[in-house]
Design goal:
By secondary structure, the chain is of the alpha/beta class. The chain contains 16 helices and 14 strands. It has a 5-stranded mixed sheet, with helices on both faces. A 3-stranded antiparallel sheet has the order 9-12-11. The protein binds ligand F0G. The site of ligand F0G has 15 residues, from α4 and α5.
Amino acid sequence: MARVPTVNDPPVEPYRIKVVESIALLSPEERERALQRAGYNLFNILSEEVYIDLLTDSGTSAMSDRQWAGMMLGDEAYAGSRNFVHFESTVRELTGYPHIIPTHQGRAAEHLLLAQLAHPGAIVPNNMHFDTTRAHVIRVGAKPLDLAVPEAYDCESPHPFKGDIEVPKLTALLEGPAGPSVPLVMVTLTNNTGGGQPVSLANVREVSSICRRHGKPLYLDICRWAENAFLIRDREAGEAQRSVREIGREIFDLADGALMSAKKDGLVNMGGFIATRDARLAARLKEELILFEGFPTYGGLARRDLEAISIGLREATDERYLEHRIGQVRFLADLLSSNDIPIMHPPGGHGVYLDVHRFLPNLTASQLPGQALSVELYREGGVRSVEVGAIMFGEEEAASGRTLELVRLAIPRRVYTETHLRYVAEVVRRVWDRRTTVRGLRMVEAPENLRHFTARFAPDGG
Ligand code: F0G
């Protein structure tokens, strides 16, 4: 069992700082001007206008001295670079999959894989699709279907594995009339859009056996697999003595392949891959890879980036690193809970998610409370977060029963210290204390797809 940090016993960094980057808090007037200019969309705020940036844990990791040293060993050959050889052997060793296809990031892997496996009219089940995964399923004319357990939609439930797939629903789908329309089953580790919640090993085993029984390939989104494996070790009966790598390997053995955005548990700023056992699929993917990403020994990346990924993938399985990493998430969650601030429980792997329905009960859905809260955190203290709710998922999702309205405080890996987290908790507390004063927003420019990235808003009634 990992040591559980508390408010008075924060996790201690298993690293020291060699390079620093200055950050500064703008004045309240400057922050207000930044918000106006950005159309109240924090994706339009400049990084220099942000004090603590919890927009995402993706591509925001601090690389280690070893990774930077690896970058200097880049062999920038178009074909057959030694960095690719190292990358391929690392991914093979960790996952056990024989065919490794590098991509420039996770969504490129989604694009290639889903274009091969899904088709118009198909149904693609997942615990919960991430927004880009969903968009790539829709892009090929297929329908994304979220099958997470009901507890995943209940922020107060203490269920330890809210990333689990609801097995009876998956079975009913595959055995029912729509079964033949399912070309693959996906599971996302951890369940990012549901609070960074882990999937249990028991659930992967069950899903795998159902998929095998029905002849359906199982593909895992493993961008946060090390965090998921650590949470399995911590929470699942009988797993405490196993290493994160062993648990990960069992999970990979249960599936046919995986895709990964290395920008998360690869501890790099750019990169991703597809890994599969299917040689014929790999050959087709490589043809498309050449068209869209690049030659199969670099796949849209500089070769030095592949070196950094090889090193980062191993570092992300270091259990002292993971204990601190997950410890930071728990520490921030504890600080917030100790002030009765409503969050998704239990805290997951890469961030703390505020429960907007309980935070701003006075705002109606049309007042976009998640976006309003996220804007307010920036206004209060220059903290950037992201709405994971109605704007990210749209009306069609709300109609399909998604009831979660969350604001994610994603913690970048190896970047912020205990004091930064205390500062964030203080900013959230100040907004919580004046929550009845928070005004809603309305959307004034709404693009059709992935609208949270580019939509513009205005204060409600303003
Ligand atoms: N799958 C999951 C579960 C993700 O969280 C992401 C990205 C992707 C796929 C796509 O990977 O960004 O490398 O193309 N998530 C980021 C986030 C953007 O903020 O959660 P990518």
